């Protein structure tokens, strides 16, 4: 007997999984997979111990007792649900319905892709997903701040035979395969996109015909690009005209797809960067054309009517003031490690009377919680998997049973029953509410927002708007006083000794789930040795890491993957200009021998 489900982990690919004779394997027929699952699923997930027993005040108790403690905690005046993305199935949101009933709070904003998504909305109105078949039909692929072989590996077959441009501060695996690789200074992508637009206008390679119909503001955008001084900017971004020339050779009159990742937008200016990249794509006329487009983390729920929509009040997910609440339910997340500015977060969480952790694994947050509720894994419950990387939707079937834990639906049902509330439909009702809105394409379900050629009619909700070019850029970070302290300390030295801190994803984890790390990657010219312990500090905090020398790094960057214990002691809890997003990389760090 075989059954199909989908991987529920937070990942672009949303692989389908076949369960056959007690074994799991990938679905070779699924458009977003090649039959192979990744090492995270095959190995690291199995090796990670799950929480098997509920706890209250440090003591193991029965599930009934733990749930009773949860109910009592929700009798308090002010409560908050802070949900992470440990499982991205839609049923995670069913708990919102209970929060609505008790007048509780939810969060708004994003630890992930919110700044970039806001920039996309500025230009296009809505953030539609670029279908996989358009990537397939392209001639040139620009991988821009997306670590494809690690975070989106099932897209690799789509790149075969294509010209490849990679823009990244790190010589990643995908960069090594590139026809052109720009090892750029971090946080300069806005300028790169503007300069590329400017050069395209200068050499008359712009797609005027397309712009006249869909983006008539292009004359103003041309003027805007001309306000940017070429010489000064090239110096600032550390690139020369030859670099731009090599990229332009591939962009002219080709079918081009940009695969933009989270890396370019972990800054206060993240929205401007995506808006500038989209504006570049518009100059080339890449929207609505076969084999062309910009792919970013799409809005997976676009086009769906969400049965879990509520009218709850919301507080920021990025700098959440947990201690304002009597009861905080952390579901599917690990804020004590994954949120920026760990010193602040831990202090805030310590101020919560009833911290409830509802999750699978022991982590920094579960250790602080007064009540711990074990969850079911995505193999053990019914759900629906949407994707931010492609258009396909999969019904997640329950394929294994376990005595451990409780599903989000059953948890919610328990609370509705205990509080004597009405209005919760059956689990099946909600599953169907999502699945019944999908359409079918080549035997697979696809999102109701699916269009073969997004934006071919135009932009905005109804496709009747024009594309809006970027027309301003606010940056109060670079060349301001924020780093005076660090600059002063290194004043007697010839140059700024602080390094940009990059924190991309790891092959061995999904965020803080599964294998954790303790390394910092540094270019050997900085003089540190492999295995050496260093104290890394920023204006927000400090932590000790172990050096791993890497020639693939720029000398002005340090890299600590986001599964590394202690990383977020270094990061700021500031919020992006647009999109209410975290700005993990808006920070420079100092390295000293520990
Ligand atoms: N420095 C730095 N920090 C970052 C980032 C970065 O780039 N740099 N990236 C950020 C990004 S993009 C993201 S998305 C966030 C992610 O941060 P979080 O959303 O906090 O996710 P995780 O830290 O992976 O924690 C997920 C937890 O979910 C639980 N879980 C898994 N499956 C289930 C389930 O089915 N039910 C329940 N109830 N629980 C489950 C597991 O116990 C696991 O510990 O991290 C952010 N943190
Ligand atoms: N194995 C694995 N897969 C995952 C995850 C995981 O934890 N592990 N997490 C999932 C989640 S939650 C998300 S949001 C996605 C994110 O996946 P991606 O979009 O790939 O994002 P990151 O891994 O954060 O970083 C991508 C690249 O951006 C580069 N970069 C950093 N700063 C800059 C910059 O200023 N400019 C440019 N051009 N590049 C820069 C980094 O060096 C890195 O190579 O991955 C998902 N997939
Ligand atoms: S983590 Fe990503 S690549 Fe791995 S099986 Fe899940 S969806 Fe596929
Ligand atoms: Mo994410």
Report on this model:
By secondary structure, this protein is of the alpha/beta class. The chain folds into three domains: 50-111 and 310-446, Rossmann fold; 114-295, Dimethylsulfoxide Reductase, domain 2 (3-Layer(aba) Sandwich); 494-593, Barwin-like endoglucanases (Beta Barrel). Helix content is 26%, strand content 19%. It is built from 18 helices and 28 strands. A hairpin with a 2-residue loop joins strand 19 (439-441) and strand 20 (444-446). The protein is globular. Molybdenum atom binds at residues 10, 112.
Strand content: 15-25%
- Rg measurement, Å: 24 Å
Biggest sheet: strands, sense, closure?
Answer: 6 strands, mixed
User: Could you give the order of strands across the largest sheet?
Assistant: 5-4-16-15-14-6
Separation of the first and last Cα atoms: 57 Å
CATH architectural designation of the largest domain: 3-Layer(aba) Sandwich
- Per CATH, the class of the largest domain reads Alpha Beta
What is the domain total for the residues?
3
Low-confidence stretches: 479-494
Structural class: alpha/beta
Helical content class: 25-40%
User: If you consult CATH, what is the topology of the largest domain?
Assistant: Rossmann fold
Estimate the mean pLDDT confidence: 95
Estimate the global geometry from the Cα principal axes: globular
Ligand kinds:
ligand MGD, iron/sulfur cluster, molybdenum atom
Tally of separate helices: 18
- The overall strand count is 28
């Amino acid at each position: 007997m075989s059954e199909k489900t989908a991987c529920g982990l937070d990942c672009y690919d949303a692989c389908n999984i076949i369960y056959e004779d007690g074994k799991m394997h990938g679905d070779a027929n699924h458009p977003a997979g090649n039959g192979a699952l990744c090492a995270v699923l095959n190995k690291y997930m199995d090796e990670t111990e799950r929480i098997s027993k509920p706890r209250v005040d440090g003591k193991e108790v029965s599930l009934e007792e733990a749930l009773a403690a949860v109910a009592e905690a929700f009798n308090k005046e002010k409560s908050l649900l802070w949900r992470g993305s440990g499982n991205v199935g839609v049923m995670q949101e069913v708990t919102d319905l209970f929060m609505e009933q008790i007048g509780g709070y939810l969060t708004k904003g994003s630890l992930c892709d919110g700044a970039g998504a806001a920039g996309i909305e500025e230009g296009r109105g809505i953030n539609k997903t670029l279908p996989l078949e358009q990537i397939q039909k392209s001639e040139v692929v620009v991988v821009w701040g997306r670590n494809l072989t690690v975070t989106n590996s099932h897209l690799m077959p789509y790149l075969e035979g294509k010209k490849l441009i990679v823009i990244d501060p790190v010589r990643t695996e995908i960069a090594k395969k590139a026809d052109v690789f720009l090892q750029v200074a971090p946080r300069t992508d806005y300028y790169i996109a503007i300069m590329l637009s400017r050069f395209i206008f200068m050499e008359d390679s712009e797609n005027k015909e397309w712009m006249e119909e869909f983006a008539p503001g292009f004359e103003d955008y041309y003027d805007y690009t001309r306000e940017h001084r070429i010489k000064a900017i090239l110096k600032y971004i550390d690139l020369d005209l030859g670099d731009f020339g090599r990229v332009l050779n591939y962009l002219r009159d080709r079918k081009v797809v940009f695969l933009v990742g989270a890396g370019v937008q972990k800054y206060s200016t993240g929205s401007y960067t995506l808006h500038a990249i989209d504006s570049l794509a518009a100059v080339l006329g890449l929207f609505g054309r076969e084999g062309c487009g910009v792919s970013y983390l799409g809005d997976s729920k676009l086009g769906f009517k969400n049965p879990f929509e509520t009218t709850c009040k919301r507080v920021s997910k990025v700098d959440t003031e947990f201690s304002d609440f009597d009861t905080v339910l952390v579901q599917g997340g690990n804020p004590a490690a994954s949120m920026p500015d760990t010193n602040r977060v831990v202090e805030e969480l310590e101020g919560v009377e009833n911290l409830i952790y509802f999750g699978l694994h022991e982590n920094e947050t579960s250790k602080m919680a007064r009540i711990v509720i074990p969850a079911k894994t995505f193999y053990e419950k019914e759900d629906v998997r949407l994707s931010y990387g492609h258009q396909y939707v999969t019904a997640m079937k329950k394929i294994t049973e376990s005595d451990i834990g409780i599903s989000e639906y059953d948890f919610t049902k328990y609370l509705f029953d205990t509080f004597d509330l009405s209005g919760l439909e059956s689990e099946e009702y909600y599953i169907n509410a999502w699945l019944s809105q999908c359409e079918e394409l080549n035997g697979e379900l696809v999102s109701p927002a699916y269009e073969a050629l997004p934006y071919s009619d135009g932009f905005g909700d109804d496709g009747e708007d024009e594309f809006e070019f970027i027309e301003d850029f606010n940056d109060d970070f670079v060349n301001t006083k924020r780093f005076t302290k660090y600059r002063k300390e290194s004043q007697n030295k010839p140059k700024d000794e602080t390094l940009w801190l990059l924190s991309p994803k790891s092959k061995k984890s999904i965020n803080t789930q599964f294998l954790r790390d303790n390394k910092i990657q540094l270019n050997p010219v900085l003089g540190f040795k492999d295995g050496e312990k260093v104290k890394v500090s920023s204006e927000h905090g400090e932590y000790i890491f172990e050096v791993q020398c890497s020639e693939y790094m720029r000398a002005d960057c340090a890299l600590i993957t986001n599964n590394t214990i202690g990383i977020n002691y270094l990061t700021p809890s500031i919020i992006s200009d647009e999109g209410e997003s975290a700005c993990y990389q808006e920070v420079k760090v100092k390295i000293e021998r520990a």
